[in-house]
Amino acid sequence: MAIAAADVKKLRDATGAGMMECKAALTEANGSFDEATTILRKRGLASAAKKAGRATSEGLIGNRIAADHSSGILVEVNCESDFVARTDDFQKLIQDIRGAIEKAGDAANDAWLSDPNGPVVSLLKPVIGKLGENMAAPRFVRYAGKGYVGQYIHPGAKVGVQVEFAGVTPDIARREEFTTLVKEIAMQIAALSPKYVSRAAVPPDELDKERAIYRAQVEETKKPANIIDKIVEGKLGSYYKQFVLVDQESVRDSKMTVNDVLTAASKALGATVSVSRFARLRVGETL
């Protein structure tokens, strides 16, 4: 099949591989972007750390959190220029969309967000007409009623993190050690962008895919099968350190993992505090 130059460039931007390698991989994969990325990784030509999409849109991350931290909202609102993103009209739009999500509660979901007759699209239309730029609210995150919710909005509001903690009593929530922990974990997520809370949360099919890629990378060495198995598991350990929150190296202290940080905080607080879930939104990022 004919492979468009734009698709080749997109794959190159996402993987860092050469143009000819990208074109060959797309041809072999019959145009499938995901399959082509896997082919390049098996050949050692693509970095697992690179994402399949690049930030291209402007906009801001809006947030709202309950006074008692029982609930929180993050929402991405996009426009075409940073100039428009800083206008009062756009700022009010973000506030109005946050309010609509809060009002909808559990009824707010992806279908609700994109409903052409729904409240969010109705809020977007007049602002688009007034400011003359296309706008969208492509995604949001809402946590409510399942734990203590903390947030971190990076300066400039291009990145927002929401994290939910389990095991937090009202007394613990008031302690400085805990508020410091919340900020540290949220900033960790903002900086290193983990995908999963724990190893148990990684889907089995993703682990199988990673193992297959790592095995393909080392099988040509003709090493004994047991040695290859150890190498593959070693590479999987590196995968955990990159994508699993509790396995990541702490951004505050490189001698500690995030799990070490949580364990130390739990000891200081006299109760087991853990991260139950988190979300990280970055403006314009393709997931």
Defining traits:
three-stranded antiparallel β-sheet, Helicase, Ruva Protein, domain 3, 287 residues, GTP Cyclohydrolase I, Chain A, domain 1, flat, 3 domains, Tetrahydropterin Synthase, Chain A, 48% helix
How would you characterize this protein structure?
This protein has 287 residues and is α+β, with helices and mostly antiparallel strands. Helices cover 48% and strands 17% of the residues. A three-stranded antiparallel beta sheet has the order 1-2-3. A three-stranded antiparallel beta sheet has the order 4-5-6. It is flat, with a radius of gyration of 22 Å. The two termini are 26 Å apart. Mean pLDDT is 90; it is low at 51-56.
Outline the secondary-structure elements.
Elements lengths: L4 H11 L3 H10 L4 H10 L15 E8 L5 E9 L2 H4 L2 H17 L5 H5 L4 H13 L4 E9 L3 E6 L5 E8 L3 H4 L2 H17 L11 H15 L6 H19 L14 H12 L4 E9 L5
Antiparallel strand pairs: 1-2, 2-3, 4-5, 5-6
CATH superfamily of the largest domain: Elongation factor Ts, dimerisation domain
How far apart the termini lie comes to 26 Å
Could you state the oligomeric state of the chains shown?
single chain
Q: Kindly state the percentage of residues in helix.
A: 40-55%
Structural class: alpha+beta
Number of individual domains: 3
| Secondary structure tally, helices | 12
CATH topology of the largest domain: Tetrahydropterin Synthase, Chain A
The SSE string, one letter per element, is HHHEEHHHHEEEHHHHHE
Mean pLDDT rating: 90
Entry summary:
It contains twelve helices and six strands. Helix content is 48%, strand content 17%. The strands form two sheets. A three-stranded antiparallel beta sheet has the order 1-2-3.
